[in-house]
Design a protein that fits this description.
single chain; 8 helices; elongated
Length: 249
């Protein structure tokens, strides 16, 4: 990308090479306010200063990123990310609780995969808002409610993709402590694969997407059926041999 950063008094020519540009999370456009990080150098041919941009974010995300890193450091020092404190995910959950929006696509993806892979388990939806000022408290309340009433053997907590602002409820300190304090194991399922939130670090298992969370939560029942049928056939053959031997005797 070749572009110019401007304000009311000045302009600075910029270049962003392909390797760095591929990591952009948005499409730059004229008039957009951005925060650019890079190094200043002189382009020899024209004798002009240029900013060689290594990363760029929409204005406002810089503050969010700083807040994210500060909370991440604080919670890490308090031991909330300690792998030794992660609870094991049950292999055969009888009931799975889903903490997410009832209106989003994420819940439909999770339900579809759970029905296909493991129809034996029951599912309880705890609907919450997943973005906005009220979202963190609703997520916290749902997690604590599920724990207080032992509603599930496993919780999936998350939402579909979005901007860093959309996902910010899962970077809330209150949500982090609720996940950490839960005696029910929790799989975090926030956004798309590149998205990482504080909830992902605290949860007992991180899934890259809500669909992947459903796959990690249960094994494929169809594979179990295949194994069960082979055991049944082997058992039938063994019983036939045993009864045949008894008949000879």
């Amino acid at each position: 990308h070749y572009f110019t950063l401007k304000d009311e008094q000045s302009a600075l020519k910029c270049v962003m090479f392909k390797g760095n540009a591929m990591s952009l999370r948005f499409r730059p456009a004229s008039g957009m306010k951005v925060i650019a990080l890079g190094r200043i150098s002189v382009y020899p041919r024209d004798g002009q200063y240029q900013l060689y941009v290594s990363s760029m974010a929409m204005d406002g995300i810089g503050d969010l990123y700083a807040a994210f890193e500060a909370l991440k450091k604080k919670l890490s020092q308090q031991g909330l990310f300690d792998p030794a404190k992660k609870k094991p995910i049950p292999k055969y959950p009888q009931t799975i609780g889903i903490v997410t929006s009832s209106a989003g696509a994420a819940v439909h993806d999770i339900l579809r995969i759970l029905r296909r892979r493991y129809p034996l388990c029951s599912v309880r939806l705890l609907p919450v808002r997943v973005q906005g000022a009220e979202a963190p408290e609703e997520i916290v309340s749902a997690i604590r409610y599920a724990n207080a009433h032992d509603l599930a053997d496993l919780l999936i907590v998350g939402r579909g993709g979005g901007s860093i602002e959309d996902l910010w409820a899962f970077n809330d300190e209150r949500v982090a402590y609720a996940i950490y304090e839960s005696h029910i194991p929790i799989i975090s399922a926030v956004g798309h694969e590149p998205d990482v939130t504080i909830a992902d670090y605290v949860a007992d298992l991180r899934a890259p997407t809500p669909s992947a969370a459903a796959e990690l939560a249960v094994f494929d029942y169809r594979q179990f059926e295949t194994v069960r049928l082979s055991y049944q056939a082997a058992l039938n053959q063994a019983m036939e041999r045993k009864t045949e031997l008894a008949r000879y005797r």
